[in-house]
Amino acid sequence: MQTILKWIVAVALGALAVQSHAQHSDVTFDIVAGQIVIEADGHMHRAGALSGNTQKLVFEADFGDFNQGPYATDDPGYVSHEVSGVLTPGDIIGFSGVGTLKFWDGTAWTAMTLDQVTLTDALGAQSTFSSAGTFAGSSSFIGAADSMGGFHSHIDYEINPDAAVGAYLIEMQLLGFDSTGSSQIYVASESYYIAINFGLSEAAFEASITALP
Q1: CA distances from 71 to 126, 154, 157, 184, 191 (A)
Q2: Which pLDDT does position 123 carry in this prediction?
Q3: Which one of 31, 95, 109, 165 counts the least CB within 10 Å of its CB?
Q4: Whole-model pTM?
């Protein structure tokens, strides 16, 4: 019982700290000329790719959500630009992993890590990001558009419990399917980053974001 109480207190204090600095913002998207387009509002940084010169959006999150436990989060979520009319009711938004898992060791971003980040989709299927690459699950669905053609859904992101303290970076694209999930009906979005803090101070985590090349 004391262990549970300590965890609740620790998470509550952590949540107060996170509220003061974390830029948790849902990934907001629209459909433009048949392509999923992610909006670049003021809550996101725009960083250079770790390879090449392509600019990418960066969304921030922290492992350790109160309702997810110390090693998981359901941020960022995914939401349509408008509450209606963006999608056809029943359309499914999914994701695809790109590249390899990156790790901030306090000095530099590296692909040399033994840890992995696991994403659990709306159907419970798991996709993993590691230094060896991205391994897709049996499905990769975030959710379906509501009866008005709007969208808002979350998936779970989880780090292995013995992971090293640091920041973890995954690269993703959004995909759009018909209501059966079998036909891709929208052009995939450009890829974007999600940087997730695991135990770093506010200053150290923000330093990792600033250091993205």
Answers
A1: 15, 16, 9, 32, 25
A2: 97
A3: 165
A4: 0.86
First-to-last alpha carbon distance for the chain, in angstroms, is 45
Distance CA 201, CA 1 (A): 28
Residues 6+ apart with CB under 8 A from 62: 14, 18, 22, 24, 73, 75, 196, 197, 198, 205
Q: What pLDDT, on the 0 to 100 scale, is given for residue 117?
A: 98
Peptide bond into 76 cis (omega under 30): yes
Sole residue written with tokens 């991205």: 134
Structure tokens at 188: 């995939």
User: What is the mean predicted confidence (pLDDT) over 198-206?
Assistant: 95
State the pLDDT at residue 54.
Answer: 72
pLDDT in tens, 33-86: 999 999 987 556 676 666 566 788 999 999 998 888 999 999 999 999 999 999
What span, in angstroms and rounded, lies between the C-alpha atoms of 159 and 73?
Answer: 9
Calculate the average pLDDT of the chain: 87
For the beta carbon of residue 157, count every other beta carbon within 10 angstroms: 24
The two structure tokens encoding residue 192: 């974007």
Kindly list the distances between the CA atom of residue 20 and the CA atoms of 15, 24, 167, 202, 204, in Å, as whole numbers in the listed order: 9, 11, 18, 9, 15
Distance between CA atoms of residues 10 and 17, nearest Å: 11
